[in-house]
């Protein structure tokens, strides 16, 4: 799957389970993908599909117990991150790999000023003076479009608006010029105008610093605009992985087709009713036999309910887990 000359991150057969009193939650179950230098990779799927747990596993932020990384490897620039101890991981986390979390209010410390937290992020990984760290923090706040930066350095997170808190979070994430920036639903709970500003800011910073971005979202419009390749996840599993145009115009998994069919299209002359995906995602504790999407799939065969389909490369760089993908590919089975 990976082109080694240009691959920054290569993940194979990643499985992260949570062992609870109710049973084993297979939050991430066999995820494989690669991230190229300078690209934006989108990860999309419904709530509970395993998107965020995949990101937290990469950063080594899974609570063990109850969590456990059951299998797989995460090759970052030649180093398997899963083999590192927490102290070793700290050299990567917030430095070479950073994350913008969904809710900055739970990620920023309420008892320290934004300036203090920014300087701490810088000093943890850079051998510079406090004065240099202060100047760097001002520069970062200016870079992310924060107004009145000297005043904001002395402010606490609760004194910021939602959009400003997210900008402060982005400033912390890029403080050490990371190679990979993971943005996990970075515009949750923000109004539409601020959402667009934050996403444009992430894109602008990616281009300025030549970093790679993993953009986690359930918003296909965001994926269409910013991602170059897309991983579609369902119930902890990867179901389709391809470049963004193929995902939107040549999807070969019924779940991907369902996601695209459930989004309104503004440029269509004839307005059609949206087609929701029937049913609900399965419990990750009690997954169905066979394909996890089969109970909701209008194309499902008896064989789909007996075993899980292998992940095959149906076209160059286009991977899909569906027993009927070849029929969609050949046109003998219509997506309509």
Structural features, described:
With about 325 residues, the chain is α/β, with parallel strands linked by helices. The protein has a domain at about 235-330. Helices cover about 30% and strands about 25% of the residues. The chain contains twelve helices and twelve strands. It has helices spanning about 50-60, 85-90, 105, 115-125, 130-145, 150-155, 160-175, 190-210, 220-225, 245-250, 255-260, 325-330, and strands at about 5-20, 25-35, 40-45, 65-75, 80, 95-100, 180-185, 210-215, 230-235, 235-245, 310-315, 320. An eight-stranded mixed sheet has the order 6-7-8-3-9-10-12-11, sandwiched between helices. The two termini are about 30 Å apart.
Oligomer: single chain
The ordered string of helix (H) and strand (E) elements is: EEEHEEHEHHHHHEHEHEEHHEEH
| Low-confidence regions | none
Strand order of the largest sheet: 6-7-8-3-9-10-12-11
Strand segment count: 12
Mean pLDDT equals 89
SSE class: alpha/beta
What sort of overall outline do the alpha carbons produce when their principal axes are compared?
Answer: globular
Strand content range: 15-25%
Overall helicity: 25-40%
